[in-house]
Design brief:
mainly alpha, Arc Repressor Mutant, subunit A, Tetracycline Repressor, domain 2, 71% helix, DNA-binding, Tet_transcr_reg_TetR-rel_C_sf, transcription, Homeodomain-like_sf
């Protein structure tokens, strides 16, 4: 039911514009009582977040074979971030309310999407594999490195949202390079 409500709400956001849609319109469109809607989603940002995280989970599951075809952490992160850039560019207007809501409801114990894949889980898996292959340092746990990488990803995304003329692909590439090579001056 929640996926259906979120899907119908997203169609409404697309048709009417996110800012113009009310919770009452979502309830009417989804054919649920307002009380039912509010029991599951207190605000429309929660509905949007549910839809985005469901999309992310589905998209990450579809990316698994592509990530398995590459043999280096840098190539895997490049493929992962390229797919993310493509999705983000197509949904740019929804990212600011999504990010504000996620940070506003931040819970350190709740870093993952329930019942699905999330970006940090995927990053952790890629990094753990790279650690076993001696491609990435192993003195820090893979989950710790993935958490740090996620913030590089988020910083690149926030910079792109703040400066519209930037290329998200370039911002993500800079984040990948910083993660892989650190901030040291590149050797010539």
């Amino acid at each position: 039911m929640l996926d259906q409500i979120a899907g119908m709400a997203f169609e409404l956001f697309e048709r009417e514009g996110y800012q113009n849609v009310t919770m009452e319109q979502i309830a009417t469109t989804a054919d649920v009582a307002k009380g039912t809607l509010y029991n599951h989603f207190q605000v429309k940002e929660a509905v949007l977040t549910h839809w985005i995280e469901k999309e992310l989970s589905t998209d990450l599951a579809g990316l698994a074979p592509v990530l398995g075809e590459t043999n280096s952490i840098q190539a895997q992160l490049t493929a992962l971030f390229a797919a993310s850039a493509q999705w983000c560019e197509g949904h740019r207007q929804y990212l600011p309310p999504y990010i504000r809501y996620r940070f506003g409801s931040f819970d350190a114990a709740d870093g993952a999407v329930k019942d699905g894949e999330d970006l940090i889980t995927t990053m952790t898996q890629l990094i753990a594999t790279a650690q076993r292959e001696d491609e990435v340092r192993s003195d820090l746990d893979a989950a710790h490195l993935a958490f740090l990488l996620n913030y590089l990803y988020l910083a690149a995304l926030m910079r792109w949202l703040s400066v519209p003329e930037l290329s998200l692909a370039d911002e993500f590439e800079a984040a990948i390079q910083l993660f892989i090579n650190g901030a040291a001056e590149p050797s010539a």
